Amino acid sequence: MYDNIKLANSNYKRRLINLNTKLTELLNIKYPIIQGAMAWISESNLVSAVANAGATGVIACGGRSLEWIKTEIRRTKELTDKPFGVNIMLMDQNKDAIVDAVCKEKVNFVTLGAGNPLPYFEKFHKAGIKTIPVVPNTKLAKRVEEAGADAVIIEGMEAGGHIGKLTTMALMTNVIPQISIPVIPAGGIVDGRGIAAAIVMGAQGVQMESRFLLADECTLHPEAKQKIIEAKDTDSVVTGYSRGHGVRGLRNTFTDKYLELEIQGASQESLNKLAVGTNRLAAIDGDTENGLVQVGQSLNPLNEINPAKAIVQDLIKEAELVLNRVKF
Ligand SMILES: Cc1cc2nc3c(=O)[nH]c(=O)nc-3n(C[C@H](O)[C@H](O)[C@H](O)COP(=O)(O)O)c2cc1C
């Protein structure tokens, strides 16, 4: 992927790039990359492969049973001795039971979204688990920092899945200067150039998802992987944006139908009914027309399926090359 940077014959003098950051220190990992949560998709195989490659991964608890979560944490520990995390969606009905189970099973960190994470910090910290909330703006970043979060993920609207209103660039510009804990941007970062850009902006690492959807170890259905490979920059759309809960995925029969009804002013209840289960339908069953292939906007570089280890190595090599040509 880094071939197009045309550095092979450049005159730049290679300097040793140090990718150790406050995030690598906090999580005790080699590279400042988090493979973020993907509901119905990220589990022990992918997470352990990413962790073994020197980055870190997150098991997605959204929609899963307690038994599944416990089993996946234990399996991941069998497959890697490296740090990894879980993501808890705080709108889940059984969130309290999940929090207790995660504290008991002991993971290195949790990412927390879709609800108020503050009441849970103490419990996680007592269990020795780092807390990393996902936020969409400066106000919430400040609030979680004041309440004792260990780091914060700022997720831009370029991301796949549920999104906020601000772009990753605007979030990095607004949030990073105002926050002392490590700030980790997510959304639209799929290559080493994106990682380098985030580091130059003052981020301590990145969270990436779309890139890891094309990992060999990722359980995403092959039909959905193929759709992502074929997709170009303008092929994602956001459903539900006008109602304040946008979800980004590839345009298809489902999104056309949803957006038509949304514009016509259909009731939220009927829209919810249409959307329920569509992530799973695409990700597990491979129905890429009636399900939603959730993926971000940076689609052009997503052209091939590779092992997680090769993806991480590519990302780091490219980030180092790009940072090498930055004149500090
Ligand atoms: C298929 C898919 C499922 C996702 N599921 C979750 C989830 O369960 N919890 C969560 O906090 N974020 C979820 N996200 C958001 C990602 O963790 C990540 O922050 C985002 O995708 C980063 O942007 P990118 O897709 O451009 O890399 C999901 C994203 C995708 C693409």
Describe the structure in your own words:
The chain is of the alpha/beta class. It has two domains: 2-217 and 307-324, TIM Barrel, CATH 3.20.20; 222-283, no CATH class. The protein contains 14 helices and eleven strands. It has helices at residues 22-27, 44-52, 66-79, 95-105, 121-126, 138-146, 168-175, 192-200, 210-213, 222-230, 253-263, 268-275, 278-283, 308-324; strands spanning 33-35, 56-60, 85-89, 109-113, 130-135, 152-155, 161-163, 183-186, 206-208, 236-239, 246-250. Strands 8-6-5-4-3-2-1-9 form an eight-stranded parallel beta sheet. A three-stranded antiparallel beta sheet has the order 7-11-10. Strand 5, helix 6 and strand 6 (152-155) form a beta-alpha-beta unit. Helix 11 (253-263) runs antiparallel to helix 12 (268-275). The protein is globular. Residues 1-9 have low confidence and may be disordered. Flavin mononucleotide is lined by residues 36-39, 41, 60, 62, 87, 89, 111, 113, 134, 155, 158-161, 186-189, 207-210, 294-296, 298.
Ordered list of secondary-structure elements with their pairings:
Blueprint: H1 22-27, E1 33-35, H2 44-52, E2 56-60, H3 66-79, E3 85-89, H4 95-105, E4 109-113, H5 121-126, E5 130-135, H6 138-146, E6 152-155, E7 161-163, H7 168-175, E8 183-186, H8 192-200, E9 206-208, H9 210-213, H10 222-230, E10 236-239, E11 246-250, H11 253-263, H12 268-275, H13 278-283, H14 308-324
Parallel strand pairs: 1-2, 1-9, 2-3, 3-4, 4-5, 5-6, 6-8
Antiparallel strand pairs: 7-11, 10-11
